[in-house]
Amino acid sequence: MKKLSARRRHPLAALVVLLLALACTGGLYTVFAPTDEAQAGTTAQSLAIDEGKKLYAVGCASCHGTGGQGTTDGPSLVGVGAAAVDFQVATGRMPAQQPGAQVPKKKNIYSQADIDQLAAYIASLGAGPSVPTEEQYNPEGADIAKGGELFRNNCSQCHNFTGKGGALTNGKYAPTLEDVDPKHIYEAMQTGPQNMPSFPDTTLTEKNKKDIIAYLDAVNSDDSESPGGLELGGLGPVSEGLFGWIFGLGGLIAVAVWVAARTAKAKKS
Amino acid sequence: MSTTTTKDSRSREKAPAGEKVADWADGRLGIYSLAKANMRKIFPDHWSFMLGEICLYSFIIIILTGVYLTLFFHPSMNEIEYHGSYVPLQGQMMSEAFASTLDISFDVRGGLLIRQIHHWAAIVFLAGMFVHMMRVFFTGAFRKPREINWLFGFLLFVLGMFTGFTGYSLPDDLLSGTGVRFTQGAILATPIVGTYISMFLFGGEFPGGDFVSRFYSIHILLLPGIMLGLVVGHLILVFYHKHTQFAGPGKTNKNVVGMPLLPVYMAKAGGFFFLVFGFIAMLSAVASINPIWVLGPYRPDQVSTGAQPDWYMGFAEGLIRAMPGWEINLWGHTLVLGVFIPLVLFGLFLGVIALYPFIESWITGDKREHHILDRPRNAPTRTGFGVAWVTAYMIMLIGGGNDIVATHFHLSINSVTWFVRIGFFVGPVVAFIVTKRICLGLQRRDADKVLHGRESGIIKRLPHGEFIEVHEPLSQEALHTLTAHEQYKPAEIGPAVDENGVERKVKGSQKLRAKLSNAYFGEDNQIPKPTAEEYKEITSGHGHH
Between 20 and 30 A from A245 (CA), which of A142, A263, A266, B279? Predict the structure, then answer.
């Protein structure tokens, strides 16, 4: 002990104490700290939430409130889930350009990374449906006919037979489903954006949703065939009637005028 | 065979084969006198006189293609599972009617094209009849002696609507099934008898298992049979009355100026038939109509937005869509005014135009025959009425498609419906006033042209410095054409008291007639056409004016 106390005032004593203290803290840390991986995950998650929160403050907070609690201009986002954010932002609907009966689809200006961060922030506010994996919405191998039946049962009231869209009350509308990304169709069914009711897995199972996506892919995409010729918008008798009047009867009247103008000349006798 | 005939008919060796056939037929059918009387039948030339031909030919096309379709269509509502070649419906339960229509579309050779020709021809047929009716209406061709033929035409239009509707319902697809349900609703809304008629028509509760086969009989037999008879009657009357013509030099109320039926009109009409057929076939090859495969089979628990009837029923659809959903509950019975009033309006609205010839002849009191057509401007009140009717019809068509209008013009469907509600009452009034003004303006212009000639665009400076525009006098023919129409004098009730100073009894109907007559022909309701005296006075004095 004397030796120790004698060297108490040695110039290097402070350094030794410091090294000891550091080693001690480091040791304690390695003993008590959680595993490395989990540590990194939490950081990334909190980082995404933080970044998402910043994006949220810029693009969303003016209507949905600073904490996603909602204001008179926009609903609360607590519990809407990441799927809702991915749908609304990736289709350009959110952030909304202006208030109105319904927020239309427009060009999306966020990168997928931005959207994921926003989604992470909103998901952190309360549990909700998460973004579906490709396996969930990929229409490969699904039952098209069953999807058609489900579509006519659940969707065509608003979206028309093949998803060409339709009118709702007071300027609201069901948009056309032509060439909508399968992921977004899945998310829309899952979350029920704007005026649409939601169809959670208890109502339409994952397989049902896949079938519907497959049906739409078959009848309402760039690749879908129209065996009868020009589709005329796929809107039914209104566009058919208009086409019949303008091109059908209009054309025939033009032919009649042409025929009548070619009169046989009377023979001189 | 040839040797024996030459031996037998040596005496008539020079008679050509055609003559022999004609001789043979004449001995049995008496066609010689028939042909002699009608071969030189004269038809006047004007493109608008061919509108009826468009209708006739599309009707023939519909019958021909319809026969082909009946060969493959099964009018049955038995439920079967589909295993045809359209993949998105495979394994679905559907009626045999729907499945056989799918087969016609995908598995029968030429089936889809024939189906589309049948449907497009029907659209064109009805549209053609509408325009043909407008032509007859606006030129006053419905006047004596053609009132009955006007009614025949009207009946053809109405029967065409219902034949089209029953045909549209046959495939038993989701769209047409919704339309049948709509009709059943309208039937049910009829007080007292509605339920009975519905039960009778559908053989029980909707949809039952009968309506396709029943509509089939109505669509392919009953209605077309009546229509065919009416078409024949319509044509016989056209022959009997002879065709009307526009006024012009050499054209009187007692002659027809034009070309003979044979050979000119036979060639023209025959050629026109093929033009119409070809045109409709081309249309059907290019544009899809009623793609039932995407609509899916009918199930009463399903419905789609954008469910409209074909255009000719669109105006009925509009009446229902625009009507507020009123209803009265009395002693446990419901009177659905929201559907019943449109149903009544539908009948009244069509009835008014059907009875118009009789209304007009009562107002004018004219019992003479008319074979010279009016120019629409020379009958401003009639023209105004016609345009008002068409306006109301068109507004209701917008009403029938209010959802499509709303989505495509980015409007609120409620605003569109309110526009239709107000427009149905205001639109015709505005249209009437505007049309009448335009007609009167055109009459003034005609009078001005007759009296002062055509504006030549040549500016002349007179010696004292005045600038005038030189007007060229019209030719004699043009003068005749512009002044050939006759103008009625408004009917008068006569003096209020008779020669003894006693108040005369005037019937209410007479007073109404005088009022209407004044509205048609009174001062300010037609521009007096220039008289010969006026013309002479103006043209004799100064060379220009």
Answer: A263
Residue among B131, B259, B301 minimizing CB distance to A264? B259
ipTM of the complex: 0.89
Q: Residue B289: list chain A partners with CB under 8 A.
A: 228, 232, 240
Give B418-425 contacts, CB < 8 A, sequence gap 24+: B420/B318, B420/B321, B420/B322, B420/B395, B420/B396, B421/B322, B423/B395, B423/B398, B424/B322, B424/B392, B424/B395, B424/B396, B424/B399
Residues of chain A with pLDDT under 50: 268-269
CB neighbours of residue B479 within 10 Å: 19
Contact A153 B302 (CB under 8 A): yes
Model confidence pLDDT, tens digit, residues A126-140: 888 888 888 888 888
| Chain A / chain B CB contacts < 8 angstroms | 204
Joined together, the tokens standing for residue B93 give 């339960």
CB contact under 8 A, A248 and B105: no
Question: For residue B50, is it within any domain?
Answer: yes
Closest CA to B348 of B308, B311, B310, B396: B396
Q: Which among B92, B264, B283 has the least Cβ separation from residue A248?
A: B283
Shortest alpha-carbon distance between residue A257 and chain B (Å)? 5
Q: Chunk chain B into consecutive blocks of 10 residues (it has 545) and report each block's average pLDDT, rounded to whole numbers.
A: 48 76 87 81 88 95 96 95 91 94 94 96 96 96 94 96 95 93 93 93 91 95 96 94 90 87 85 95 94 92 90 94 92 90 95 95 91 93 96 96 92 94 97 96 92 88 91 89 89 80 84 90 87 82 52
Residues B276 and B144 in one domain: yes
Answer whether B50 touches A (CB < 8 Å): yes
Residue B416 shares a structural domain with residue B309: no
In a domain, B44, yes or no: yes
Whether B55 is covered by a domain: the verdict is yes
Q: Give me the count of residues in chain A.
A: 269
